[in-house]
Amino acid sequence: MTDGDQRVQVFVASRNAKKIAEMQRLLEQHVPDIQVLGLDDVAPYDEPAETEPTFEGNALIKVRAGVAATGLPSIADDSGLCVDALNGMPGVLSARWAGTAKDDAANNDLLLQQLEDVPDERRGAHFTCAVAFGYPVGAGGISEHVVHGEMRGRVIRELRGDGGFGYDVLFVADDTVAGGDCHTSAELDPDAKDAISHRGKALRAIAPVVADVLTGL
Fold first, then answer.
1. Transmembrane segments in this chain: where (predicted)?
2. 21, 118, 168, 169: which has the fewest Cβ within 10 Å?
C-alpha cells in the first residue's frame, strides 16, 4: 500500500491528468502522505466498458476492476453534465456525447448546437458525480463505498476559460453568480473550483472514509 518513500498509495481509474491532480489535491488534505496513481502508473489491464445507466453503476464497475487489477485501494468516479432542456442529457453519455472518442471540443460544439435556440432562462443544468471507493478484504473480497456530489448552474453560449476539462468552459455555477461573478468552471482557480464542484463535494465526503481505511492498513 506504500512506496519506497512510505507514502500511502491509492489508485484512481483514470488517465485524465487534470482529474488525477484534482483528486491528489483534495485527498491530501485528509491524508497528507497520499500518492494518487493513475492508469498510466500501473501495469495495463483490460478496462471495463461503462455500460451502466447510472453514474454510481459506472463508478462501481471501474473501481472493482481497479482493485482486481492492482490490489490497491481504488477510487473511481463517473460524472457528467445533465441539462434541463435536454431531459437530463448528456448525463452518463457526457464524455462521448459527440461520438465514441472522449473529444471535449466536439462534445462542447454539439451541446452548443443543440441549445442554440434555447433561451437563457431555460439553460439550467447541473454537474453530478458519483465517487466509488473500494479496497480488498479477506480472500478475494472487496468493501465498497459510494458518495455523490452535485453543482447546479447554467450552460452559457460561448467557451470561456482554459482550466478544468470537459464542459467546464461552458458552465457557470450558481454559487459563482451568488458570489458576484459569472466565471465558468474553467475560469476558476483550483481552490475555488474544488470548494463548489460536484467532484469536490463528493471527494470531501469520501475522503474521511479513505483516510480511515488507509491509516488502518
1. none
2. 21
